Amino acid sequence: MLRAMFLWSCLVVPWLTLFAMDKKLVRHYLPAALFITLINTIIDQLASYYQWWIVKDQLFLWSKLDIPIIYGLFIVGSMWILRFTYGKFLWFLVVNAAVDAFQAFIAAPVFHNTGFISFGNMSQADIFLLMFGFSFILYGFQMWYEGESPELLIGRRSKERT
């Protein structure tokens, strides 16, 4: 019961934090977050097939996906990271590296030790590199979505956002 409550909170609580973000910004960053979530969903399916990692506890019996993490923490976290760092590429990379390192080297071992996941054919360093690689796709998609060239955005904010 406690495990299910934890999984539900990983899915629901991040979405509740979006009430603190301006609705315009949610709509602005949601397409990039949805795109990277689609890619993460595909990667999670590949992880299940190739046993890169195995998710043991599921919210839904019919799913092999890590739904609370992908559709809760990951999608909303992507929007918050874009909200505070988009237009500051180096800062964006630092924040993503820190979040991805936390996920790969701290959260994943805790989830492994508590029985939520087990490591398969991927090391923690591989998981970090995979997640960190997502950050380039996320940033690139947001740049494409805004229709701005890369040299305008790297290192400074091109448009002031609140």
How would you characterize this protein structure?
The protein has 162 residues and is mainly alpha-helical. 71% of the residues lie in helices and 4% in strands. The protein contains six helices and two strands; from the N terminus they run H-H-E-H-H-E-H-H. A two-stranded antiparallel ribbon has the order 1-2. Helix 3 runs antiparallel to helix 4 and helix 4 (89-113) runs antiparallel to helix 5.
Radius of gyration: 16 Å
Helix content: over 70%
In sequence order, what are the helices and strands, one letter per element?
A: HHEHHEHH
What is the first-to-last residue Cα distance?
40 Å
Structural class: mainly alpha
Strand content: under 5%
Count of helical stretches: 6
Number of strands: 2
Overall mean confidence score, pLDDT: 87
Topology:
Blueprint: H1 2-17, H2 23-50, E1 53-55, H3 67-85, H4 89-113, E2 117-119, H5 124-146, H6 150-153
Helix pairs in contact: 1-3, 2-3, 2-5, 3-4, 4-5
Keywords:
162 residues; mainly alpha; 6 helices; 4% strand
Short précis:
This protein has about 160 residues and is mostly helical.
